[in-house]
Write a structure and sequence with these properties.
Blueprint lengths: L31 H5 L25 H7 L3 H34 L3 E3 L14 E8 L7 H7 L9 E9 L7 E4 L5 E4 L3 E4 L1 H20 L5 E5 L1 H10 L3 E5 L3 E3 L4 E3 L2 E5 L1 H9 L7 H20 L2 H4 L2 H14 E4 L4 H15 L4 E4 L2 E7 L5 E5 L1 H12 L19
Helix pairs in contact: 3-10, 6-7, 6-10, 7-8, 8-11
Length: 403
């Protein structure tokens, strides 16, 4: 029903000016003032479980969004937590890397190599005697057949090397001493140097080397046949560049020229073979230095040190197949390993004692190797004075030297 028109103010209106009246259709509509008033906010309904549920239709305010986003302080806290976890993992890995060799070192075999009586003066630099023994001790009959070691009894040396670590800035030096070198042996006359090991073991060999070189030997390391093959297999073989086709039935190898990965059996044959080598013992000594450097280099690669079971297997094989002198420390062993790695990376020198005659006839030891006395003494004098060596001295790299 339409609103009735208002009569003019004061024109016959009941009550006069005091009786202004708004007539509203109560069935439809409301006063204009009420329509302009904002609607009340919807109240939050209580949840029967006692929790307050906000209106889902209500949008979050900018202030609320700022509260949800992580602030700089929260991000810094998360960053510090990440760094802490990473640091903890690195420390744990380093502790593992140190603990494994230290634990193995406590169980390693010890030998008495320190000579009695007067010895050369201990000068600057460190000199170590590294020996490869052909002892079959610890090998089963099946292992001897597999490794082609034969059945020789007693201990002899297949490898004799001097390792010099300079303290004056020179390169590390690895020097092969041919096992057939004809030298004076204390209380045994003149003979091949490997006879010293047979006559008196590590002690007499150390005394002989000190006597003929004038160097004080600071440490002694000896590795057997089985230990050598075990270390190679523990790290999955060692890549080596074979300088030529090599077939040696006595050493049990048939290798083709070129770079390839050798397992323990073929590696052992590679470093022991000499009958097929035109340089004989000198050629074999060169291959031994080459391979030992490659072995130590491979043992420090991520594929070895980052795989726990491979790393522990290698360390266990080394500790089980290596013997050290009673006065040789873990630091000494570390210096030797680092020197061989340097040689493999062309950061060290791989040398041979200067030779005058490869087929020197003797009255008591058959054909032997005679040193070039003048050049050999000059080399040992340089090492004794710890003069920095950066290039091979004359006469120390005869024949081929495979890389």
């Amino acid at each position: 029903m339409p609103t009735e028109p208002r009569p003019p103010h004061g024109a016959g209106s009941p009550g006069g000016p005091e009786d202004d009246v708004y007539v509203v259709d109560t069935r439809k509509g409301r006063p204009a003032a009420a329509a302009a008033r904002p609607s009340p906010r919807r109240e939050v309904r209580p949840d029967p479980r006692g929790e307050v549920r906000p209106d889902p239709r209500r949008e979050a305010s900018p202030e609320a969004l700022r509260q949800v986003r992580p602030g700089p302080r929260t991000r810094r806290r998360k960053g510090r937590l990440t760094l802490f976890v990473v640091g903890l993992l690195v420390v744990g890995w380093l502790a593992f890397m140190i603990w494994v060799p230290v634990a193995a070192w406590t169980g390693i075999s010890r030998v008495d190599n320190v000579p009695a009586g007067e010895r050369p003066k201990d000068t600057s630099g460190h000199n170590y005697l590294l020996v490869g023994s052909d002892s079959r001790e610890g090998l089963t009959a099946a292992q001897r057949r597999q490794l082609k070691t034969g059945s020789a009894e007693g201990n002899r040396t297949d490898t004799i090397m001097l390792v010099h670590v300079s303290e004056s800035g020179g390169k590390p030096v690895l020097i092969s001493i041919p096992r057939d070198s004809y030298v004076p042996i204390p209380e045994h006359g003149t003979n091949k140097i490997n006879a010293a090991f047979t006559f008196g073991g590590p002690k007499l060999l150390t005394q002989t080397v000190e006597q003929v070189t004038g160097l004080h030997i600071n440490g002694y390391l000896e590795i057997g046949l089985g230990g050598f093959a075990g270390m190679v297999d523990a790290i999955g073989g060692v890549e080596i560049c074979v300088p030529r086709d090599m077939k040696d039935d006595k050493a049990g190898i048939d290798l083709q020229k070129g770079c390839q990965v050798l397992d323990g059996k073929n590696a052992l044959g590679y470093v022991r073979s000499r009958y097929e080598d035109p340089l004989g013992d000198i050629g074999r000594a060169t291959r031994q230095r080459q391979f030992l450097g490659a072995l130590m280099k491979q043992s420090a690669t991520p594929s070895t040190v980052l795989i726990p079971w491979r790393y522990t297997t290698f360390v266990d094989a080394a500790s089980g197949g290596v013997a050290v002198g009673e006065e040789t420390s873990l630091l000494d062993a570390y210096r030797v390993l680092q020197a061989m790695r340097a040689v493999s990376s062309d950061e060290g020198l791989s040398l041979t004692v200067p030779i005058a005659d490869m087929a020197y006839p003797t009255d008591n030891a058959g054909v032997a190797v005679k040193w070039d006395s003048e050049r050999a003494l000059a080399l040992f004098h340089t090492l004794r004075d710890d003069q920095p060596l950066t290039e091979p001295p004359p006469g120390t790299t005869p024949g081929e030297d495979p890389k």
